[in-house]
Amino acid sequence: MPQLEAIAEIDFNTDTYKDAYSRINAIVIEGEQVAHDNYIKLGEMLPENKDELLSLSKMENRHMKGFQACGRNLEVTADMDYAHQFFSQLHQNFKDAAAQGKVVTCLVIQSLIIESFAIAAYNIYIPVADPFARKITEGVIKDEYMHLNFGEEWLKAHFEESKAELQEANKQNLPLVWKMLNEVENDAHILGMEKDALVEDFMIAYGEALNNIGFSNREIMRMSAHGLTA
Ligand code: Y39
Ligand code: FE
Ligand code: FE
Hints:
Bound molecules: (1S,2S)-2-nonylcyclopropanecarboxylic acid, fe (iii) ion
Distance between the termini: 33 Å
Number of helices: 9
């Protein structure tokens, strides 16, 4: 019900909406580009999963094109410099981990953290999106659950030997997500997306993933708390 009211209130053609959209749309386009590159890198690091990872990278490329079309549809120019900056720390941490061959850290950053961020953002966006973007986003989000599932399954199958690195990667990178959510809060609000809802959906997706991988509730609570210090 509140979401229906929100739809009625949103005018996708105001300068305020378009200004916020120029940054959020850019973040999503940049995120999809980063995800595309990250899955190609992961395919090099995990030769036994190369075909599957390349197919995930192709999906990310399709997502990027879809969101570029959403910007064009609203006649908004995405602020790619802003978005590049927005993702730079998380992206750098992925590149540093890849350079050191730390595949567990790379999977945590891309397949758990970035995918959970995507799932939260797209779930919250769909009810308040313009009709064109809603259709695109509904198609995209199904893929994001598959991407999260890839990370879950791999880390579950290598749980004992990955556990310590996974916890360290969580500690280093979860605070960045909180920082990013704070940074995007005002623009997201203008698009009809509330930060509390984004945080809630992120923690549900991420916590469920950690549970499926094999962590106890106590461990999940402790790992989740690392974000809060940001
Ligand atoms: O795996 C993926 O496709 C991830 C790249 C996409 C992440 C998109 C992150 C969106 C954050 C937007 C914040 C809006 C409130
Ligand atoms: Fe994607
Ligand atoms: Fe994805």
